[in-house]
């Protein structure tokens, strides 16, 4: 759910381009909707997960591909016309390292090393890819400091967010996106760091979201959470914050162990800060420990490690916190999830 | 004792000055050319290296580019850490003359390979906008445009307005460059699907040379991988033949300078023979005398070389300011300033000049050391001095070797052996000169009056001094005549060639070096449909790389009746139609020589022309493109390359339609002709080409004039010296009863005889050398043929002036010599 970054990146006036709005009523169709929707302003495939190696250590992995329609040079027949850009982030969180290992890629789509399919999940950027092959998803990123190579097998059906995939992001109806999640993906694969390769396995979560709409002008950032619950359920929550710290919008959905899904209204979602952490690099402060409450479920979130700040100023121009969190439910291990905290004072420097 | 020496020397200072000037000329020329060439090579390699940034390897295509699909393949290779595609070209700007280098970059990729060239806009997205341009600070200053200003770039026949989004702060000082998004560059140049180069940064641990070798094997023909510096070197190789030819000319003038030193020193040793003998008698050892005379020559050499170095630097600076580093050679251009020369290259030229002068005084010095002081103090001993030069064997051997050398092929693409043959031919002739003179004199009948017979008898008895004076004359006349014949042949052949290649009534030329200028198919249709136009031909110029070791050759795709090409191309071979299914390819002489192709050979062209088999259907003469050219049918080119743009249109008017009317129609049809599009009539084009030719040869002309002046001055100087040295003889003749007029007649007839002999020999040698220049040197270094053309009238005038001035000098010196008291001269003896 990284809408913010690209929305701000692209929130520029005087682009003579018609972006299709997101309207309720249409239905998602697969595998078509796994693929790209290049007419929309922005889109991403966001894979996060918790894995364990043979030594039992818990690691966070994240691989994200963003697509962005710039509206630039669309009338230029050149294959290099930068009408569509692709960005990718990959990161590994290891408490033993104490901070994220992260790397970014960016390129214009269409020529050479950056391609995205409109038929199914298949996005490639400079040797990194995320694609669907039969019933398995394949993810690979070969960075300088690490590489990850994962096979993901769905253990649960897709979860369409909002109203059949129509997810509202603000008080105005047009502030919305198409959004579905694929929780409870069984992960097997290898991680490589410092030339050492380890086999890992665990659980992952894939988000796919696309939209053309701007966030509410008052919005400065959001908090997002996706948790694979140990009972087989899944919880997604988000809130959009304004500059004065108040909440502009919130939402989410909980699919319980029995498979029944409940979609939450803004008033039903509650985020409470339990502890803040200040980044020694950027001096920004993030609420890394939270309590979230929805009707029927309370989770205490504790980060795998405090320093999971991601500096993406070189590609998308943002700094945010994005990390693996442990979810405790009534004091017991309730699951693992990813928490995203954006807009905490990192001035967007484009 | 040395005071005596110095006084003897002082009287010869005027002539020594000439020797100094000759040495200075040779050194100045050689050094100036070396400096200029250094600037040109430096600029070209630097430009190439700068544009490729921190790349470990660059994959480059021919001028039309490499297919862009290659970029994805290269970027995906595991050895490649980052790949940056670029499209390069030259663009014209409205309101600014000339064209400017433009680079299309993908900012995302360039960031990893050439970060220095990525602009820093206030808005990052400006890096991707098609209507934004970044310029280097040097260019901003030159254009007077800064951030937020606009520039109008030529695209086809129109202009496209781009806003300056920022400066390229990382540019080198003085670097002139425009940078745009790569997609915008493809659109601007109409080069969709092509890239100029892909610059690669390799993954850690990958060996660049080893990977380059492996990669090269997988690349399509015409696409080349190499270190960025190698690409610059390849460009600079283009100018090598031109530079070497100028350097050899400089060496020839040094050679002439050495001969002048020889004649000065020899005559001065002759004139000072009694003084030198006296020095010996007073106890100066023979070895020290040898060293003294050699040192005299070397001193002249050092002085001349030092002056030459200074003059060479000034010459280079002046030429650079006037013509750029290309020295009037259109394939090279530079705008840089002249750096301070490297000490070693200055030293080399200093040594060369000194060595030439010292070598010139070697024979006189040896002779001075060898003489017997007792005999030398007496008069009439001079003839002995020249005895060693009379042996014919060395001279004949030199001539024989020269003939042998002429049969050898070029060395490393340069006519080294032909030059050596010219040098040996001159040297051998000069060594044989006294003997040849003596033989000629012996052959002459002794007719005429007393003065004529006396002069003949005198020359027969003592040809030595006259022969010495002739050496420099023969060499400089030979040089001047050969250059004149070669340049005249070239110019004449060029003029004839222009007649053949410019048959149309009107030419519309675009894209003279600028990639943004072209006629698209719509413009072509509109031109063809003009009411005044009877016929129109279009031409597309681009460049392709035929193999990896040579610079790209020019490709001319022409609308072409391929059944009757003789009427459209200056073919030097016959026309052999290609077989069925094959396409006709016409190659220039350069391509035939350098790529060893002959009529009937099958040729496989690189991308994008790889699709069809070609066969060489004819060889044509091309003076316009030094790097070689291919001609093929434009329809074939368009089909294979998918490129229907044209860079030139040739228009024939209907009967009664004048070129001016035709031009008016073309202007109207194209709306507004872009200010830098040229509409020219063939007459203008011909005179423009000849002007360009004259400019290119300006350096040569200047050199020739200087050589002739020095030769003339040398001749006059040595004649005057000889006449003055014969004072005693004249006094004796007067004493014996000869009238003053008779002595003068004797003198002038002798001078006419000797000078005439020298001029004839020089002229003959010059013609021989010009044959070598035209048929061997030019062919081997530039790979083009020409028809020999001798400017007889000009040569006759030139020789008459030389003879006249020699006679005038002799008469003047004779009067001076006879003006002295006769008796005093006899008493001197």
Detailed description of the structure:
- The complex is a heterodimer of chains A (350) and B (829).
- Chain A is mainly beta.
- Chain A is 2% helix and 56% strand.
- With 829 residues, chain B is α+β, with helices and mostly antiparallel strands.
- Among the domains of chain B are: 1-50 and 240-385, no CATH class; 57-226, no CATH class; 506-680, no CATH class.
- In chain B, strand 13 and strand 14 (553-558) form a beta hairpin.
- Chain B is elongated, with a radius of gyration of 33 Å.
Q: What is the CATH architecture assignment of chain A?
A: Beta Barrel
Q: Based on CA inertia axes, which overall geometry of chain A fits?
A: globular
Stretches of chain A where pLDDT is under 50 for at least 5 consecutive residues are 1-14
Described by strand count, sense and barrel closure, the largest sheet of chain B is: 9 strands, mixed
Distance between the termini of chain B: 23 Å
Summarize the structure.
Helix content of chain A is 2%, strand content 56%. With 350 residues, chain A is mainly beta. Chain B is α+β, with helices and mostly antiparallel strands and 829 residues long.
Based on the model shown, name its key terms:
heterodimer; A: mainly beta; AttH-like fold; 10-stranded antiparallel beta sheet; 1 helix; 2% helix; globular; B: 829 residues; alpha+beta; 56% helix
Secondary structure layout:
The complex is a heterodimer of chains A (350) and B (829).
Chain A lengths: L2 H8 L31 E11 L5 E12 L14 E11 L6 E8 L5 E3 L5 E4 L2 E6 L2 E7 L3 E9 L4 E2 L5 E3 L7 E18 L2 E16 L7 E11 L4 E9 L4 E9 L5 E4 L5 E9 L6 E10 L2 E7 L5 E4 L5 E12 L2 E10 L9
Antiparallel strand pairs in A: 1-2, 1-13, 2-3, 3-4, 5-6, 6-7, 7-8, 8-9, 9-12, 10-12, 11-12, 12-13, 14-15, 14-23, 15-16, 16-17, 18-19, 19-20, 20-22, 21-22, 22-23
Chain B lengths: L1 H9 L2 H39 L5 E4 L5 E2 L1 H8 L3 E14 L2 E10 L1 H7 L18 E4 L1 H7 L6 E6 L2 E10 L10 E4 H8 L4 E2 L1 E6 L5 H11 L5 E3 L1 H10 L2 H32 L1 H9 L4 H38 L19 H18 L1 H9 L2 H4 L5 H4 L7 H13 L10 H28 L6 H12 L2 H38 L4 E4 L11 H8 L4 E12 L8 E6 L24 E6 H6 L7 E2 L10 E7 L8 E5 H8 L6 E6 L5 H11 L8 E3 L1 H15 L1 H28 L1 H9 L4 H43 L9 H28 L2 H7 L1
Parallel strand pairs in B: 4-8, 5-7, 14-18, 15-17
Antiparallel strand pairs in B: 1-10, 1-11, 2-9, 3-4, 3-10, 5-8, 6-7, 12-19, 12-20, 13-14, 13-19, 15-18, 16-17
Helix pairs in contact in B: 2-8, 2-9, 2-11, 2-12, 2-25, 9-11, 9-12, 9-13, 9-19, 9-25, 11-12, 11-13, 16-17, 17-19, 17-27, 18-27, 19-24, 19-25, 19-27, 25-28, 26-29, 27-28
